[in-house]
Amino acid sequence: MSSIIPTHQGRAAEKILFSITGGKDKVFISNTLFDTTRANIEFSGSSGIDMICVEGKKPSIPAPFKGNLDTGVLKDYIAKNGTEQIAMVLLTVTNNSGGGQPVSMQNIRDTKNICSLYNIPLYIDACRFAENAYFIKLREKGYEDKSIIEIANEMFSYADGCTMSAKKDAFANIGGFLALKDDDLAVKCRNLLIITEGFPTYGGLAGRDLEAIAIGLYEVMDEHYLQYRIRSIEYITQKLDAAGVPVMLPAGGHAVYLDAKEFLPTIPVNQYPGQALVCALYKKGGIRCVEIGSLMFGRYDHNHKLVPAALELVRLAIPRRVYTQSHIDYVAEVIIEVFNERDQISGLRIVEEPPVLRHFTARLEEY
Ligand SMILES: *Cc1c(COP(=O)(O)O)cnc(C)c1O
Q: For 1-56, what is each residue's pLDDT tens digit?
């Protein structure tokens, strides 16, 4: 990438990039857009379309690359609608809102080929690029003997740019950046950065944070670290699976995802089973997790009827280098206890909600 533009968080990089590339009637296509990403796209007047592969929609059925974009759906969309309105294709690696599942190199390459054919820019939401690269090494033929940095370099070689949250695969407490190959676009982004974030040399960050990011980006590619990281997510996922708790399989990169639809089959989606489960886990064991379902991604139709999200997941994101095995065992035990008492959990109704990103500040009550 020829331009690296630091920002105070990933969403600030999104805001700057989409303010310039988005706007009224534009469309952003993704495997799955993260919540702040979708909100920034919609805030610019554009819309977002998720084209996750078929395997990605089936939580209980394992597959190696459930984060892949469905390139057949992308081709059909282009054949039907043309490309003029498409601002970009944005691949989220790993796919945070879809279970932390990886995207294969083949899928990145295939997506790039379609984009090149029609002159559509391809961007990467790179928050977990190292975890994604590690999954490619483990699961994709031809990459067994490559280093993580070689794999990451190949992933980014197909992209016109990326947005990054340094709080994820850069080990930093704060920060992010926008990386671009297009120099003209970079000039526009820097000008907007100066109004909203800070000067292009620091983008709202302190010097120590910039240094932490520079080191963290290398440290996160250490294979011993990645092995421990991926294995610890797998450990909790397997423990829950063995106890009959419905989880997203296989284990993702950074989190264990509970399938709330299966966990609470008697609570209908318009009573937000994911959020009901989030509250139950907090009440039982003080465990904080997040709903990734119809509270986060649901929409209302013309009659104010809920159009539910594709999946009702609950994500327990595991902080890097924080927990020991006994912490994780405690979390698993609480989840299993709540699972055994799941009949006592009731659905929720919204009593107050803001117009965008409602899941952050909405108020709900039990039925
Ligand atoms: C966290 C995250 C973001 C937003 O980054 P922030 O630093 O929290 O603003 C964007 N995309 C994905 C996939 C993320 O996980």
A: 789 999 999 999 999 999 999 999 999 999 999 999 999 999 999 999 999 999 99
Q: How far apart are CA 302 and CA 295, in angstroms?
A: 18
Q: Which residue from 8, 31, 34, 38 has its CB within 8 A of the most atoms of ligand 1, so it is best to mutate?
A: 34
Ligand 1 neighbours by CB, cut-off 6 Å: 9-11, 34, 36-37, 92, 96, 125, 127, 165, 167-168, 176
Q: Among 149, 124, 128, 146, which Cα is nearest to 137's?
A: 146
Cβ contact 284:337 at 8 Å: yes
Q: Residues 90, 17: contact at Cβ < 8 Å?
A: no
355 shares a domain with 305: yes
Q: Which atom of ligand 1 is nearest to the CA of 175?
A: 7
- Whether residue 199 is found in the same domain as residue 234: no
Structural domain count of the chain: 2
Q: Is the pTM here over 0.85, yes or no? A: yes
Residue 252, domain extent: 223-366
17 & 63 share domain? yes
> Which residue among 219, 250, 265 closes a domain?
219
